[in-house]
Amino acid sequence: MAVDYQVLRARHNWAERADFALHRPTGTEEFLFLHFKSPVSFSLGNHAPKRLEAGACILLSPKTPHGFSPLEGRLLHDWMHFFPLDEPSFSALQLPQNAVFFPQDTPFITSSLRRIEQELLTQEPHYERAISATADTLFLTLSRQLSAPPIKECQSGHLASFEELRHDLYRNPRLYHNTTKMAQAVQLSRSRFSVLYQKIFHVSPIRDLIRARIERACYYLSSGTQSIPEIAELCGYQNEYHFIRQFKEEMGMTPGAFRNK
To answer: Domain limits of the chain?
Structure first.
């Protein structure tokens, strides 16, 4: 059964200044979902701030004190303020509240928040239904990921090296021009690598490579002064026009339009 949501505000790939610092001693009146895409110092309740690495998520219930600030340059994150209109059904998803968690697959979070943000901005017919449906899919997907069965033994032997590879991929996509380079990094054949990557992260390596490039491009466009050709090269593209075309396919706008936004 679908859960209906009222989304008040949402942003994807939102960049804050390096000197940004947020402190909410009484929390928010609504639920708040956060997905950090760069390291952050995060405090919850009366606890001392802790370092959270990129990829960390937290679902804050109303009136939960919290605060955060960037650790390495500008902060980049996705966020959404919302109310579930049926809290018992929302609670049945068993998503951890007021606790940090790391989903196996995070790029879908950004794409979901991008769709919600666009619907809020354009307010086309039935936009509230579209927003609610997207939010429901987002939280259902997170619930499934967090309740997924443990990785099988044949995969667990590769888990550490695959997680290290993926972390490096999202920080340095320019180092990986194709899946062959990715497979070489973990010393596997390309075919065996592709099968294991899909099983562990629930996304194909080529699709994840594209996501990593686009996410890194969003970071540079939001926080740097590099030109479009320079960003294309930094993200692993051999051709500026290929970069622009792929960016538009993923983000619904050109890199220049994204920077101006």
So the answer is: 5-146, 154-260
Assigned superfamily of 154-260? Homeodomain-like (1.10.10.60)
Name the helix (H) or strand (E) containing 9.
strand 5-16
Sign of CA dihedral 152, 136, 127, 122: negative
Buried b (16+ CB within 10 A) or exposed e, 170-187: beebeebeebeebbebbe
- Assigned token pair, 246: 């792929």
Residue listed under structure tokens 């290929």: 242
**pTM, full prediction:** 0.67
**pLDDT tens, position by position, for the chain (261 residues)?**
678 999 999 998 888 887 899 999 999 999 999 999 888 999 998 889 999 888 899 999 999 999 999 987 778 899 999 999 999 999 999 999 999 988 877 878 988 998 999 899 889 999 999 999 999 999 999 998 888 665 554 455 678 888 889 888 888 899 998 889 999 999 999 999 999 888 888 788 998 899 889 888 988 887 778 899 999 999 999 889 999 999 988 888 899 988 887
| Length in residues, the chain | 261
Which whole-number Å values give the CA distances from 1 to 90, 137, 146, in the listed order?
10, 11, 19
Superfamily per CATH, domain 5-146 = Regulatory protein AraC (2.60.120.280)
